[in-house]
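Page 37, continued from 36.
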């Protein structure tokens, strides 16, 4: 019986989760970005786990692309785990739908609460939402989340070890369905988020895919020491070093690894992140993140 645990992670929450499940199941830990250059992904495993962060109540675009590359998902026991900051929304439901449309079946999907690693639109007096600030999570709250995480992983492991089926953990279902029904992500979300990120043009990409253009909001300030870590850590090779400085290439996953891992805190998003405390999971090292490059 062979198990493979695939993961995508920007700040390590999903990486520690995937790593822990891989240890418990004696499974092979595989970074999703390390297999994305393949035309199709054929797995010999009987059990497949997919671990990822929630992005805007949905699955990251890279997870969608990853599933569409998997070509033999039938007859496998597949489970998903999303990590989230305050609400996992319908991400497990969307994972279920995309797996189903590619010939597989999601046996179970779990949502694990972790520290939030992203930005929040910040209100500027006399104006509308003008920029973004990092949403910080107090250290005590982080510790509480890590303690609960351990217990939650134990229960997930027991569930999947027994090959049970039928748990699909979602939250704020009514609101999320209403958002979908009213098409609010397309009509409002896309316009507002891209505009405050500084994207001036027009795009027909659906909301989740349009996040690739959010990297118009990144810049690096004069604290940069030209170490190149941001370019090496980017899971989708979206950062080129030009004359020693990072330049974003507009196929971003918005994982925030570049900003959160920059050792000089030199990467900013818009105008209000320079004083924000950076976050990454305490048990993950920058070298663990670089493993994304290898298989
Ligand atoms: C682009 C983006 C969108 C996010 N959207 C949500 C969200 O809708 N709900 C939520 O609870 N957390 C959201 N988060 C927070 C992450 O899901 C959460 O911190 C996750 O554990 C990060 O995992 P990672 O460390 O593996 O990258 C978002 C983070 C990013 C980067
Ligand atoms: S990681 Fe930070 S300091 Fe290093 S090159 Fe990138 S922006 Fe500059
Ligand atoms: S550019 Fe930054 S935020 Fe975008 S995918 Fe790369 S590391 Fe993640």
């Amino acid at each position: 019986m062979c198990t493979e645990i695939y993961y995508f992670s920007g700040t390590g929450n999903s990486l520690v989760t995937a790593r822990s499940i891989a240890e418990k199941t004696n499974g092979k830990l595989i970074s999703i970005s390390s297999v994305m250059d393949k035309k199709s992904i054929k797995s010999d495993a009987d059990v497949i786990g997919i671990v990822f962060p929630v992005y805007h109540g949905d699955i990251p675009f890279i997870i969608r692309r990853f599933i569409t590359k998997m070509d033999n998902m039938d007859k496998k026991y597949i489970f998903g785990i999303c990590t989230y900051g305050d609400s996992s929304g319908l991400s497990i439901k969307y994972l279920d739908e995309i797996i189903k449309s590619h010939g597989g079946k999601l046996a179970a999907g779990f949502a694990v609460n972790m520290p939030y690693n992203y930005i929040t639109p910040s209100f500027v007096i006399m104006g509308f939402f003008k920029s973004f600030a990092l949403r910080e999570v107090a250290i005590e709250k982080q510790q509480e989340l890590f303690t609960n995480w351990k217990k939650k992983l134990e229960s997930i492991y027991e569930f999947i070890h027994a090959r049970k089926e039928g748990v699909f953990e979602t939250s704020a279902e009514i609101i999320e369905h209403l958002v979908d029904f009213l098409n609010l992500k397309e009509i409002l979300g896309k316009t507002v988020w891209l505009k405050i990120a500084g994207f001036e043009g027009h795009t027909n990409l659906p909301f989740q895919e349009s996040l690739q253009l959010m990297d118009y909001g990144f810049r690096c300030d004069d604290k940069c020491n030209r170490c190149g870590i941001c370019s090496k850590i980017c899971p989708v090779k979206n950062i080129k070093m030009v004359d020693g400085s990072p330049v974003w290439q507009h196929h971003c996953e918005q994982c925030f690894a570049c900003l959160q891992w920059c050792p000089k805190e030199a990467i900013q998003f818009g105008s209000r992140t320079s004083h924000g405390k950076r976050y990454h999971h305490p048990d993950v090292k920058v070298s663990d993140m670089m493993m994304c490059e290898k298989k």
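The CA atoms of residues 85 and 116 lie 4 Å apart. Flag for discussion at group meeting. The mean pLDDT is 93.
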